[in-house]
């Protein structure tokens, strides 16, 4: 079959790498792609937020299946346009993707589903939001309602930080996303991510992961999109997984279906875990990045069968073949990230790294210029490995990192420390 993947990050490189290993895949196009993807599949220049353009491209290239990577095209209704055109698609409708694109929507669905999450209130006026903060005190969490590329959440340990965040959000720092804010109770505990496929009726767990959000070793420094991840997450025991499914995920999916917005795609749930109880921090309507890289490394070629079963709505007859293995991904980012960073620095040494089913360099922000791989984004490479233990996988990942010559970049040296 002919397959089109939308996106250009490490997540999409990992998806493309896994999908290509499946003999059902005859031709793979990734739009827009990056230098790493270009080495294994065709890349196409396409505005992936424009549903009409994506449908036309898919029809012209006789695409049988479209996999949507990032959240922005989902929120823009690209999955809806593709399904209307009769094209098999992996990714939720814009209505269902509100589980990621609106925090207020999600909190209300959680109420209806009786799913454990932080207590909250929702505001459209700064004065009322500030009054509420005064009644609650710090620590407290302030969230812009809409998509804010991971930057719309302020975990305020002090009152002043909370009040400043309200000013920033209502003064337009987050654009439209800040026109509404959700203020949440601060939850303590350990965070973990849980990934399930849902076809509107059946929920199929496909893995757990933990990531490192802070820029520097020891989980210090500013928040980023993620500096590394590993799977499985040891904290997500089978008892916790069962609890998460029965108390949070399945009730949410049932409410979505009852309200005429059946959820079809991957649901990525972030939990805060304390005293053996998971509480929902957030939902995302797509795979995490870099969590996707470790999940793809562990699942391999079967991913295409699973995504197809999800899109074709027969997850009830699908099955995940689990291996007793561990995967880790170390992110290499441009110096300065997540603040201002330089673009265009050259990366060498990549050709000497043997890549196989257990060791991969997934590219994120790279492009090929004059025959050289150059950095074009904040997060640039994901060194991803798989092993019989996390320690073994980690050792190989850091051996690979050491072989890459990139003075313009940095990476954390302690990915996986919590699990080890
Ligand atoms: P979100 O975009 O909602 O996942 O929030 C980003 C990060 O902020 C999460 O991964 C948590 O580390 C933190 N966070 C969000 N909500 C809360 C909360 N209610 N209590 C504590 N930390 C939170």
Structure description:
- With 420 residues, the chain is α+β, with helices and mostly antiparallel strands.
- The protein is 31% helix and 30% strand.
- The chain is built from 13 helices and 23 strands.
- The strands form five sheets. Strands 10, 11, 14, 15, 16, 17, 19, 22 and 23 form a nine-stranded antiparallel sheet that branches. Strands 3-2-1-4-5 form a five-stranded parallel sheet, with helices on both faces.
- Strand 10 and strand 11 form a beta hairpin.
- Helix 1 runs parallel beside helix 11, helix 3 crosses helix 5 and helix 7 packs across helix 10.
- The chain starts with a strand and ends in a 9-residue tail after the last strand.
- The mean pLDDT is 95.
- The structure holds adenosine monophosphate.
Q: Give the strand tally.
A: 23
Give the overall silhouette.
globular
Question: What's the overall average pLDDT, rounded?
Answer: 95
Low-confidence stretches: none
Write down the Rg. 21 Å
Q: Give a short account of the largest sheet.
A: 9 strands, antiparallel
Helix content: 25-40%
Query: End-to-end distance, in Å?
Result: 41 Å
Distinct bound molecules: adenosine monophosphate
Task: Work out the strand percent.
Answer: 25-35%
Number of helices: 13
Question: What would you call the structural class?
Answer: alpha+beta
Question: Short description, anyone?
Answer:
The protein contains 13 helices and 23 strands. With 420 residues, it is an alpha+beta fold.
Question: What labels describe this entry?
Answer:
alpha+beta; binds adenosine monophosphate; 420 residues; globular; five-stranded parallel sheet; nine-stranded antiparallel sheet
